[in-house]
Design brief:
Shape: globular
Strand order of the largest sheet: 4-3-5-6-7-8-9-14-13
CATH superfamily of the largest domain: ANL, N-terminal domain
Strand content: 15-25%
Number of helices: 11
Bound molecules: 5'-O-[hydroxy(phenylacetyl)phosphoryl]adenosine
Distance between the termini: 31 Å
Largest sheet: 9 strands, mixed
Number of domains: 2
Number of strands: 21
Mean pLDDT: 93
Helix content: 25-40%
């Protein structure tokens, strides 16, 4: 099933014409209404009129996460604040998050693209969609919610967590589709097994999983364990939330909803635009958003674009699953964490040498975060004398900084590897290859 045949199966020429038209308009909107863009364009002696072809997008400056942070909270809005009817923020918990503001029209667009995404996963009016993405400032919960309303499916807005209850509801309500992070889907399958729930008695047929990196192997495991079709969904707060791209049943890349989001791939070092099939950093421009138009956002996610027509009949471009990031951002249990946040927490502790290593693993199906810290004797002040106390204190400081539970291991001074060049602060032992 295709939700919006016209938009999703547009002939190439027609699509490019539409995109150029929308690009011109969004550039003009950004220039006229967002002082940040006006200054930037003026400094570069650029005018919206300079956009005469799609290729001209390459003349435009990039927008980065830190540009958005600098504009915190509402500096990137292109409409008066009273036109904004909803706000969300990126999933990191400290520092200034990036804010996304939506007008009524923007929420309609979000509902539309999420409706298309859920339809790709086989959802329709008869489906009961158990939405285990977190509701709140995170975009996962409400993004899926709006999509279910677009297509008229029944949403079970259970939000994240409380796995026993998830299972009970899944059985009682005969849930047919679940939406959550892939790692939570695996965890859920494990708990189902422990609870001796016979998967065949459940009504599950598909899952829409995203918000973090995962692999083909993980897909296979989830599909086998839950007896469903597991599909990949991609998105980010800055652009709209979930619903930028979604896999169809062909499972051969994620279709980008190109009538709303314009994708490019660049070489993250030279910033040159790369061709079809070449792997690089995904850059996205919002073509239709009113509340917060974003031009050439550097996602830092690594992928490649594929233009050939898909077996499903859609003509919109596909992106490969994300295989990495150009920065050191980690997503742990769906939450954005930068190693620098952990370092900041450690530096605030008197007597602590910031020699540390962050180790991320996925022992069962959920991410675990361990921080190894070198313990020197001056860490043990008069108030804290015991290893256990020091460990607890560091754990709680890091927890305050990143909002996630962490295991601290105190190790001997000078026992962590030293590097001549860039220190290797993160050992991500999860397998995303
Ligand atoms: O994670 C939006 C979302 C919610 C997507 C629910 C899918 C499902 P943020 O918290 O702003 O937004 O994080 C965005 O998460 O730049 C990627 O690095 C990563 N990411 C999101 N989806 C995928 C995916 C939401 N399918 C950041 N595969 C992005 C790999 C993903 N990484």
């Amino acid at each position: 099933m295709i939700w919006n045949q016209e938009a999703e199966c547009m002939p190439l020429k027609e699509k490019e014409k539409l995109q150029l038209n929308l690009l011109k308009k969004v550039v003009e909107r950004a220039y006229e209404n967002v002082p940040y863009y006006k200054n930037l364009f003026d400094n570069l002696k650029l005018k919206p009129d300079d956009i005469k072809s799609l290729k001209d997008i390459e003349k435009l400056p990039f927008t980065t996460k830190s540009d958005l942070r600098d504009a915190y909270p509402f500096g990137m809005f292109a409409v008066p604040e009273e036109e904004i009817i909803e706000v969300h923020t990126s999933s990191g918990t400290t520092g200034k998050p990036t804010v996304s503001g939506y007008t009524i029209k923007d929420l309609k667009i979000w509902g539309e693209v999420m409706g298309r995404a859920l339809t790709m996963a086989g959802a329709g009016k008869k489906d009961k969609i158990q939405n285990c993405y977190g509701y709140g400032l995170f975009t996962g919960g409400l993004g899926v919610h709006y999509g279910t309303q677009t297509i008229g499916a029944t949403v079970i807005p259970i939000s994240a967590g409380n796995t026993q209850r998830q299972i009970e509801i899944m059985e009682d309500f005969k849930t047919s589709i679940i939406t959550c992070t892939p790692s939570y889907a695996l965890y859920l399958s494990e708990v189902l097994e422990k609870n001796d729930v016979d998967i065949k008695n459940l009504n599950l047929k598909a899952g829409v999983f995203g918000a973090e990196m995962w692999t083909e192997e993980m897909r296979k495991t989830i599909e086998e364990r839950l007896n469903i079709s597991a599909l990949n969904i991609y998105g980010l707060t800055e652009i709209i939330g979930p619903g930028v791209a979604q896999e169809c049943e062909e499972k051969n890349g994620l279709h980008i909803f190109e009538d709303h989001f314009y994708p490019e791939i660049i070489d993250p070092n030279t910033k040159e635009t790369l061709g079809e099939g070449e792997r690089g950093e995904l850059v996205l421009t919002t073509l239709t958003r009113d509340g917060m138009p974003i031009i050439r956002f550097r996602t830092k996610d690594i992928t490649a674009l594929r233009k050939e027509k898909c077996g499903c009949g859609r003509t919109i471009v596909r992106m490969d699953r994300i295989t990495g990031r150009t920065d050191d951002m980690l997503k742990i249990r769906g939450v954005i964490v930068f190693p620098s946040q952990i370092e900041r927490a450690l530096l605030k502790i008197e007597g602590l040498q910031p020699q540390y290593q962050i180790i991320v693993t996925r022992p069962g199906h959920l991410d675990e975060l361990e921080v190894q810290v070198e313990a020197s004797s001056n860490l043990f002040s008069d108030e804290v004398k015991h290893v256990e106390e020091v460990k607890k204190m560091i754990e709680s400081r890091i927890n305050n900084e990143i909002g996630l539970r962490v295991n601290v291991t105190l190790v001997e001074p000078e026992s962590l590897p030293r590097s001549e060049g860039k220190a290797i602060r993160v050992l991500d032992k999860r397998d995303f290859s």
